[in-house]
Amino acid sequence: MLGLSFHSRRRQIPVLMFHGLCERIPDYALFEGGRTCHLPVTDFAAVIRWCCQNYDVIRLSDLDDLLARGGRGYRPLLLTFDDGLASAIDLGLPILRNYGVSAVMFVTTGITDAGRTPDIFYLEKVVYQCLPADVRVRFDGEEIQLKASSKEEVGPCFHRLWSWLVERRFPPLRVSLQDVSINGRPVIRGLVSEDRHFWFPASWNELKAAAREGILEIGSHMVSHRPLTWLSRSELIEEIEGSRRRLEQELEVAVQACAYPHGFVDEEVSRVAGVHYRWGFADSGGLLKKVSQRLSAPRIHVASEDWTVIKRLISPYGRAVTHLRFYGGTVKKRLLTMAGNTVGGAFRMDRGSGQTGEGEQSP
Ligand SMILES: [Zn+2]
Hints:
Blueprint: H1 2-8, E1 15-18, E2 20-22, E3 38-40, H2 41-54, E4 56-57, H3 63-69, E5 76-82, H4 86-99, E6 103-107, H5 109-114, H6 119-129, E7 133-139, E8 142-148, H7 151-167, E9 180-182, E10 185-186, H8 204-213, E11 216-220, H9 233-251, E12 257-259, H10 267-276, E13 279-281, E14 300-301, H11 307-314, H12 319-326, H13 329-339
Parallel strand pairs: 1-5, 1-14, 2-3, 4-5, 5-6, 6-11, 12-13
Antiparallel strand pairs: 7-8, 7-9, 9-10
The structure holds zinc ion.
């Protein structure tokens, strides 16, 4: 029975997706709308340990071969990070190093160039420290008013803001502090300190050192992090081609793969991506099964509250063993606590549909 399960999964490759890591989840990084992107480093260490015990962590360049030929006795799994965050470098790399494995880092070149936390995340920290807050955000001639009276209301407040932006096809990461007032006052940088482990980008030098060491392979997460399905053809080409050019220029590496911001991909996006990249990763969940999926390759978003479910999905030996072996200790306790705090299912919009639907939103 174990043998059957093992062999049937040989060519099904889990590709795990992480974002930021943290020593502990900051109070202002509240769990709303699927934005559970900050994995405590102790949980990350447990995930990587489990992966190394149960799988062979591979490099991007191994994918083609493994999908085409399988590989008897081999259980491939690929690790990826999105957004090029400093916390992944600071907290993640020592753990990868310890296990002798590597990951793919998808970098948003415009955010790395800016060298600071994108305004919409910085704003979250500001609001948290200005309670009670009457927040007004203007974008393209429209305005939304949000109120947060307590810490608990900050998360729902930002969930509403993200929903409002996405419904209007305003790219969330394009919100600027200049478009915002809190309690009638403008918001400026420096109002609160930036947190290097909260959506703060790694520097080009840090990425370059990690790429040279071989612990990170570098992929593109575009220039501006706008959802690609919303863009004109020329904008799409600039995002897809321009980001690769910038990465190759700064990091002196060949860039073979991209990850679509917010996971938004359609036929046109994957067609253009295929001109410049061998692989294009979405975040649709499920296992990578065949080469034909290479420009809409599924990934599994590892957010702290759903690791128990993921383990069951990807366990090479099936559910029973997963349950016996890995449930226990602080990770389980924290996961159970968090499950009650999570609001799942946000929104997804595809090109031309004009409809919102259920789906998970990931930055
Ligand atoms: Zn992203």
